[in-house]
Design goal:
The chain is of the alpha+beta class and 440 residues long. It has helices spanning 2-21, 26-36, 38-61, 121-188, 194-229, 255-259, 263-284, 329-395, 401-436; strands at 23-24, 64-73, 79-87, 93-101, 106-119, 238-239, 289-302, 311-321. The protein has a single domain, classed as Outer membrane efflux proteins (OEP), CATH 1.20.1600.10. The longest helix has 68 residues, at 121-188.
Length: 440
């Protein structure tokens, strides 16, 4: 039992250490981005809006129920005056005015109504449009998510590259400083001229702002990545990854194959369907519609605080509305709907051309980066061999430590060129994932 407790304690310590260290590999960083990205949260709100639009459309087809109650206190009495012809005592007819009390001090009223659309082209179009809008927003959300993930991947590997650049810049600055110290020692012993000392000093001090600039760029990128992933400035962000490997170059695909997968293009397709429904909805304003109603009415009057002289009634009715002339408003709305439909068609055609050009450009970048990687590999192999030879030569006293450091710088620069080529390849590869709608 004691061994189990110790094991659990060790696991907790490791987890807490990793948590406080702020170390993230690519998967962990992407998960953090998906959880905290404000852009993604905004896209999710658009999904909620689509759900609300769907409910709103259904509300047009469902019955509306309302109830209303009222009370009135009559401060004065109302009378009804009626002219009546009556027979007098002498058997003649005379006209007199009779008064009838028609109000009481207290009046109570209550009514409840159910209104139900019985026939309307508008309702069907509204329900169709709501479903199409929901599908469109689903694709828009997926496209937003893929764009955010692609941006996060690029930022992750760009940070790894800038860290390598910073480390190599530090080594180069340190080598220039050591070279200056060596030249200064020789100058003090009268072995070199003051001109050579000044050259070494300038070379060293020129490296300092270069290193500071690279470090600043790296820190700025980390700050942006923290903000993007929802990490506070007080927390560390240590990215765990490598630029040593890269995925195999994908096969080239036709534009038509890609169009069926890309969520942003599918969103445009659904937008076009939505515009078509909009045209039908505008036309439906020309057609008649029928509404039904069922009403209950109650009223009471009394001079006392109670229900007297009651009236109850149930009313069943139907209303047929036939639009005849709206001052040209309906025609204008139909014209606007047709213009929006034509614009969506043009946008689809234009987007097809843009996607075709995008796919071509991405594969050109992939080909170029792959060739640069192969070239950088050859250079890196040569630099590594030269550095190993220099190490052996330095151990045997055949070359100076300064020459060994220069050889190390050449090796580091070859590594950096390789990493830059790999990053450019990954940058194009992530764009290919997004362009084909296959962002992992």
């Amino acid at each position: 039992m004691l061994r189990i407790y110790r094991l659990l304690l060790s696991v907790l310590v490791l987890l807490s250490t990793s948590l406080f260290a702020g170390e993230y590999d690519l998967d962990a960083f992407l998960e953090l981005v998906k959880q905290n990205s404000k852009d993604l949260k905004l896209a999710k709100q658009e999904l909620n809006m689509a759900d609300a639009v769907k409910k709103e459309a259904w509300a047009t087809a469902l019955p509306k129920i309302a109830a209303q109650g009222g009370y009135k206190r009559n401060l004065l009495e109302n009378k009804l005056f009626v002219d009546m012809t009556v027979m007098a005592e002498d058997s003649t007819y005379v006209t007199t005015t009779q008064e009838f009390k028609i109000t009481r001090k207290n009046e109570y009223q209550f009514n409840a109504a159910i209104n139900q659309p019985l026939f309307s082209f508008k309702i069907g179009n509204a329900l169709t449009a709501a479903g199409q809008y929901e599908s469109m927003m689903d694709y828009i959300y997926t496209a937003s998510e893929q764009g955010i993930i692609t941006f996060a991947k690029k930022g992750f590997y760009q940070a790894l590259l800038l860290k390598k650049v910073w480390q190599i810049a530090e080594k180069s600055e340190q080598s220039a400083k050591e070279n200056y110290d060596n030249i200064k020692n020789k100058y003090n012993n009268g072995l070199v001229s003051e001109f050579e000392l000044l050259q070494a000093e300038v070379s060293w001090k020129n490296k300092i702002p270069e290193t500071m600039e690279v470090k600043r760029n790296y820190d700025l990128l980390l700050a942006n990545l923290k903000n993007f992933a929802g990490i506070t400035n007080e927390q560390d962000l240590i990215l765990i990854g490598s630029l040593e490997s890269y995925p195999v170059k994908p096969e080239r695909e036709s534009t038509e194959d890609v169009l069926g997968i890309r969520p942003d293009f599918q969103a445009m397709i659904w937008e076009n369907k939505l515009r078509q429904t909009g045209v039908r909805a505008a036309k439906s304003d020309y057609y008649p519609y029928l509404d039904g109603s069922f009403v209950y009415v109650f009223s009471s009057q009394s001079d006392m605080w109670k229900f007297e002289r009651r009236n109850n009634n149930f009313i069943l009715g139907a209303t047929l509305t036939i639009p005849i002339y709206t001052g040209g408003y309906t025609g204008a709305q139909l014209q606007k709907a047709r213009v929006e439909l034509e614009k969506s068609r043009i946008k689809i055609d234009k987007n097809k051309d843009d996607i075709s050009n995008e796919m071509t450009n991405i594969f050109l970048r992939l080909d170029e980066a792959e060739k640069r990687i192969q070239s950088a590999k050859g250079t890196l192999n040569s630099a590594e061999k030269a550095f190993k030879i220099a190490e052996v030569s330095a151990d045997n006293g055949l070359i100076t430590q300064l020459e060994l450091k220069d050889t190390r710088i050449f090796n580091d620069q070859a590594n950096l060129n390789f990493y830059k080529a790999v990053y450019d390849y990954l940058d194009a590869y992530f764009d290919w994932e997004k362009a084909t709608g296959r962002v992992e």
